[in-house]
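Batch manifest, entry 17 of 40.
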Amino acid sequence: MNSLFEGDPPHFKTGDTKVRGPRKNNTVSDRIADVSGVINEMDLQALVVVEGPNRVEELQLFFNRDEINGDWKCAVQQSGAQSVGLAVRTDTGAFQDPPFSQFDSSLADQAPLLKEITDPFLVDTDRDDLDELHKFERRPLYTEVHLANGKSFRILGVHLKSKGVFNALERAAW
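Output type: structure tokens
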């Protein structure tokens, strides 16, 4: 989604700007129509966004578009490019105001165990008796969603994608 935005404060790139997508030629307008169409068809109440925009202002800007049904409140766990985000629909009466509380998974005082297990770590991954430094590039999004009936539940949005091995050349690198 980062390719849809530019500037600070953020705004959408012009609709005819070329971006990556499922078609041979994709534009900002195409991507907005595709993603908003899926969100509307699914009639979602909440959505965890993986590989979303880096800033909450960008995700909120997307969900504020007229093409997307309803009113939404968004959060992003900032962690560099393609962050994990949350969008909760606020116009259905299903959630309290505010609809969620966000815990910063990069701060030990808000999510100590989550920070500990997602901090950089050493492990010998290539069996050469030397520990290599590894880290999660995208910290998890951790929120508590507040339902209108007074109950709540927590969401942990994580990015678990692996680059995979897709051909012999990539396999040789492993």
